Amino acid sequence: MMRILQPLLVLALVATPMALLASCGDGNNAATPTSAQATATAQATATAQATATGQATATADVANVLTESINEEYKARATYQSVIDKFGQISPFTNIVNAENTHVEQWVSLLQRFNVSVPADTYMGKVPAPASAAAACTAGVAVEKEDVALYDRLLKETTNPEIVAVMQQQRQVSQDNHLPAFEKCAQ
Asked: Which of 149, 157, 127 is CA-nearest to residue 66?
């Protein structure tokens, strides 16, 4: 099996520079490969490398979906943690921040599975807590509605069954568990 895969990898590695050179035109202009050509070449190389190593690979679209998903969960987690840091271990924030940790872990696992760099959490410690616990509950409602809307949109952008399953599960938790808890808290 490896004897078959090694020539594919070599072919992809040799074809990549050749494809980039060919896309530069006849030398009469300073054209560079188009974004689409560069993306296609990179995807072909990544696919050949992933096939050779047995790892899954992500297209640019899948990488964007995974990255956008984990960033949304980072933001939610940071929002709830800022409330806990300011007001203490109050409900429903303590339970929901733990769920957000699980959501982040699921996205980290998928990012690694698809050989996509896990983005740094740029939200933790940078999301200010609302002025009051009541305002924090209202903010929680808004965050969970954003989560649901994000997953509704992203579910239209991917068909990968692993990614769809995680999105559907996390969307359901946001819609059916977190949102009602924050709505009750906000009353």
From this structure: 157
For the whole model, what pTM was predicted?
Answer: 0.69
Cα separation of 70 and 82, whole Å? 18
Burial of 96 (0-12, 13-18, 19+ CB in 10 A): buried
Architecture of domain 60-186: Up-down Bundle (1.20)
Kindly report whether the peptide bond that precedes residue 7 is cis, defined as omega within 30 degrees of 0: no
Angle at 65 between CA 35 and CA 9, to 5 degrees: 55
Torsion sign, CA atoms 65, 71, 74, 78: negative
Q: Could you give the CA distance from residue 74 to residue 176 in angstroms, rounded to a whole number?
A: 20
In sign, the C-alpha dihedral spanning 84, 179, 146, 113 is positive
Location of structure tokens 């200010």: 128
Give the whole-angstrom CA distance, residue 112 versus residue 114. Answer: 5
Cβ(79)–Cβ(143) below 8 Å: yes
Over residues 20-45, the pLDDT tens digits come to: 333 333 333 333 333 334 333 334 43
Q: Which residues of the chain have pLDDT under 70?
A: 1-58
